[in-house]
Amino acid sequence: MDRGAAIEIRDVFKVFVARGDRHQRRAFLALRDVSLTIPSGRFVSFVGPSGCGKSTLLNMMAGLVRPTDGEVQYKGLSVDGINTDVGYITQDDNLLPWRTLQENVEVALEFRGVPADQRRERAARYIAMVGLSGFEHHYPHELSGGMRKRTALIRTLIYEPSVVLMDEPFGPLDAQTRVILQDELLRLWEGSGKTIVFVTHDLVEAIALSDEIALFSRAPGTIKRVYQVPLGRPRDVFHIHADPGFPEFYDRLWRDLKEEIVDVVLEAT
Amino acid sequence: MDRGAAIEIRDVFKVFVARGDRHQRRAFLALRDVSLTIPSGRFVSFVGPSGCGKSTLLNMMAGLVRPTDGEVQYKGLSVDGINTDVGYITQDDNLLPWRTLQENVEVALEFRGVPADQRRERAARYIAMVGLSGFEHHYPHELSGGMRKRTALIRTLIYEPSVVLMDEPFGPLDAQTRVILQDELLRLWEGSGKTIVFVTHDLVEAIALSDEIALFSRAPGTIKRVYQVPLGRPRDVFHIHADPGFPEFYDRLWRDLKEEIVDVVLEAT
Amino acid sequence: MDALEMATGTFGAVEERGKRLLQRVESEERAQQRIEQRNTTLGRLAFGAAMLLAWELASGRLLDQFFVSKPSHIAAALWAMLIKEALLYHLRYTVTEALVGYAIGAGAGLVLGFALARSNFVYRIVEPFIVAFYGIPRIALAPLFILWFGIGITSKIAVAAVMVFFIVFINTIAGIRSAPVQFLQVARVMGASEWDLVRKVIFPAATPFIIAALQITVPQAMIGAIVGEFISSNRGVGHLISRAAGFLDTPGLFAGIFALLVVVLLMNQGITTLGNHLMRWNPKHGTVRDVP
Amino acid sequence: MDALEMATGTFGAVEERGKRLLQRVESEERAQQRIEQRNTTLGRLAFGAAMLLAWELASGRLLDQFFVSKPSHIAAALWAMLIKEALLYHLRYTVTEALVGYAIGAGAGLVLGFALARSNFVYRIVEPFIVAFYGIPRIALAPLFILWFGIGITSKIAVAAVMVFFIVFINTIAGIRSAPVQFLQVARVMGASEWDLVRKVIFPAATPFIIAALQITVPQAMIGAIVGEFISSNRGVGHLISRAAGFLDTPGLFAGIFALLVVVLLMNQGITTLGNHLMRWNPKHGTVRDVP
Amino acid sequence: GQAQRVRITEVHTGTLFMAPVYIAEAAGFMGEEGIDLELTEVDSGALGIAALVSGQAQFFDADPFQAVQLRRQGRQILFIYNLTKRVTLDMVMHPEVARARNISRNMPIAQRFAALRGMKLGITRPGAATDVYMRYYLKRAGLNPDRDVQIVSIGGGAGLLAALRSRQIDAFHLSAPTPYLAERDGYGVVVIKSSAGDVPELDNFMYTGIAVYNIYANRNGDVLRRWTKAVNRANRLMRQDQAAAITRLRKYFPRTDPALLALALREIIPALSEDGTMNEEMMEKHLQFMLDDGQISLKPSAKEGLLWTNRYIVK
Ligand SMILES: Nc1ncnc2c1ncn2[C@@H]1O[C@H](COP(=O)(O)OP(=O)(O)OP(=O)(O)O)[C@@H](O)[C@H]1O
Ligand SMILES: Nc1ncnc2c1ncn2[C@@H]1O[C@H](COP(=O)(O)OP(=O)(O)OP(=O)(O)O)[C@@H](O)[C@H]1O
Ligand SMILES: [Mg+2]
Ligand SMILES: [Mg+2]
Hints:
heteropentamer; C: mainly alpha; MetI-like fold; 12 helices; disordered C terminus; E: alpha/beta; five-stranded mixed β-sheet; 14 helices; about 40% helix; binds adenosine-5'-triphosphate; binds magnesium ion
């Protein structure tokens, strides 16, 4: 497996200007001095408090947001404009409302000029994989929240990008479906050489899936620490609790997070 | 506390017609023979596989969807048309994009004719409670996913409806923020006499918060079983794992869910 | 609760009931469309008949018959036109002008709208000039139309196209701007080309605007053709109308107009159908009142 | 990674850098708006000047000066009009007609749009009749306008209002239908009255459509006033234009038109500003090309 | 001076036949008769009728066809002042066509009509005077207006000039000054000048006059007399002192080139009525013309008092 850097984030700062205040457009700092290397072929998770800038960082990797200062490199080149080399499963599902589930799943293949019958065949396979067979002809508003999210997931996986950015892909899914899809994801990924950047707020999920976990501080977000997950591969996501390395690592992560909690509680009251 | 039924669901069936199939509009069954009583003043959670009809059932309680057969009663009267007596935190945040965070939080108070200064004061309190102070003048698209969800939450809580329907209110939140808000929610609820119907896919959350848990089967959804949570009140959500009743009850719930998992896995491959 | 489930009957009975419901809903769904269709048609006929009746009765009493004529006379004039003035020949000519002008104007509005909206700077510079051009009374341009487009069918098509263009253009721009930026972003990341973006994301998002513009411009195109025929012509319904006006022949005037309106209504129906088709995915299209 | 964080400098330095960035962005933000504004203004002036120059040069060579005149002559005529024909007096009259007609037509279109869209059945019945009414060439209705509204200012206002109404009406309906049904639903559950719904949910959602319609109808209102003045008048810019046309006075004709266009452009600018204000929340309003 | 002041509204179609009325107003003759005259221009005859019938205006420049047509509907308007004594349409032809066909004003009128065969001829609107008389010319020459020539309607003077200049039509006819502008700029020659009496059948012909609603005339005979008195004063001024007339006219045509106004007046004055009087023969000629042309199916009497009267004319 290639061990070069897929993505390299250097000294990134991000300033946003909120537009709601009529009289003064006040700028504020969303990301502060973030540096991180994501090696090629690895599964890296981001965990951290809500609003700390995880999605913003993913947006930068996809070229949708420009850093105010610092640089984001993709495979050695500075990201400048849309990065069509990555697949991006955004936090909102962003399904096209005028396309049925199947048409949504096929859309990237259409962009790539894949012939209709191949599209259909591949879509059917992925749709079955996430348990959505029978709903091919539903429009997004006729699907449940979890079904929409699963559709958004396979819409990106289907064209097999070499780097996949996933922003809470299993967010609105029940524990049951979730574990199955985690397992499915690991099976697709293992040995594929793909790089995955995965945002989640479920520590167990992060541990079960990742090679590395980047822990973010609360806003203005920065990376507090990067952990190497001390579990072997392949992993059994169904029984990850039973892995000998799990409890200790989980406790360590949780301890480090608690510091952030205390801060938030203090702020909240 | 009043122990009458806040909501009474009787023999409800729901048939949807999906419109994507051009040639045949095939109807399909989303809810099958659901009956459930939600007593007044209780905290009831729904758990179950994605797409089993949890949101649909909440929509019925709010009067947004009509049952195809059977009846939904609210405080003894059949729900017929919009039920403005409940507060409903929908699965999607549905914030009004043309209003800032604060204006969104105030909207229900505006509908109720609360004077501007009172609105502002109450909004500020709730905004601080969920840790969003400083973001009052951000438009929804300038907020992170978790921040939007927190806004949607307090937008409903602020007018203190006597029955609150919550569809995965803590979905896109990190574990840390989540526990704090769970605690906050319990503090608001306890002793208030309010009824809460709470959809979640986190079993720990369901146990930590609820009096009763209704477990749904996979689609066409029906209620497989209703559990009484065997933990006392008040509860410490930060250390719920340590509660003596917790492990046994958790295992029982998880066992019952597994059956559904097996089914899904079979279907998926 | 388990007891309750038992009480509702055996599992088999529930299955049975579910199936019955499915069938019921499927047939109801079909029936309802038919009923709505029928009610609308009946409603329109009733409304139309009521208006004609009111006109017939009011004319000569409340309204001055010299200027408004009455439906019965108009019908007679229409018949006479059909027989004696080769109405259909003139109608075909006018409708061709209107249709071709409509197609050109709408096409140009769409294309230029897409071209300019995607380049905001150019749009902001050019926009006031386009608006200004539309502030020029058509009548003032008549000699130029004659010089540039002649006195044949081309000049009528040009007038119709001009009247259609602006509305489609502005609405297209507004529609393009309302395409959610997130959709554009995910599509671009998925590798959409500019053309993919236009066809598969922006156009569908702008559909409600474009359809509204296409609906607004149906009567405009027809009026454009008529104005064109007023500017110069030797045939067409505008010619007939103009002659009727010259001879103070109000029934003839309205007869010509009625002939046009039939075409306008047919075209409008076509656009409505097209809109319903393109926006079939839209859950609330047409059902705004009833929130549930 | 901890090492890396260290390497970038002390915590204080990072803070410092953050602050500097904040200031930079704030001042850049302000500067950029100014620059854009300036570029747009310059671009428009350049474009306008180029067009006038091309006209001046082409006139008499490529174009027939008799029919298109040339900017220098038009400027002279404009001056003469200002002095000898009390242009400002006529202009005030015409602008009043256009503005009042615009306000009435747009107001009626909005109100009727809201009234009908929320009752789909009535809308579907009434719609073809409204469309048909718009298919009637204005010229045919002119005698009725005189009968009903006289030959004073009222009839011009009526023509302008009629030309504005339809476009605002159809676009309003389309806008209302595009209001996301989920927003209506949550608002209703939160206790919104029908009036709350209209004001706080439907109207903002329909804003892009309404603004587009208001923009389209600015020149329409002006033309409506002019058409009204062509139908009957003894003052107003339409009267001046009509008189110039009668005497084949092309510079005078264009001078009258130019006077109008200034007003049209001012009104258009007003609508654009209003639109920008109402849609200030909209992230991509005006920045369509640059996806990031 | 001793008479009561009245306000009247007169609508008109903006033709130059109205020159005496304009002058009467601009020179203050109306005012001296105690009349505040407000002139309003309308786009077409039908609109003038609408204004008259609805009581918005009291005076209008109509033609006998409109009067007859209104009569059929049970409304009576009455001509009280004649504006023209013959048809004033002058035909201008592209010089190349005229040369190729060898047409000029020196030829007998019948030959000129016959020479129109195969041409593209411009009129203003179908049913308008330009159309009616063009067809009459063709019929006089035994031509079928719908087959032997192409008649194209082109809304107004500027359009007609544009079409002639770009050779999209071969000829058109209209009242002065339009045809003379084409002549001045070298792309037209006037070949039929009915304003000078080239067409005898259309000479001494009731073409356009000022009409009022009958009811109004019955009640306001005094006002009508004062009105005609002022107009006749202006008429005399116009004939005696063209320069003065043009100065007065500038109130209504402030920026128009005085030379152009002079040209127009020079061409049109010979066709205008000297004192507004009408006679049975003039009216009869027009009525018979309309009957022959098929515009009307019943010919009302041409006698004074029915469609016209000289009763109110004060010289
Ligand atoms: N377009 C924008 N304009 C202004 N502020 C923005 C914008 N996008 C994001 N922000 C702000 O940047 C910060 C980080 O947002 P981001 O979405 O990256 O958070 P996140 O880590 O993904 O949070 P969550 O877990 O809740 O999704 C937030 O404070 C948010 O308000
Ligand atoms: N408007 C609709 N038209 C057609 N089908 C619908 C509609 N709304 C929901 N459904 C279907 O009904 C079923 C239940 O949906 P629902 O949203 O209630 O699920 P859910 O239990 O909330 O799932 P999740 O946990 O994923 O949100 C799904 O199969 C969905 O496709
Ligand atoms: Mg996020
Ligand atoms: Mg749901």
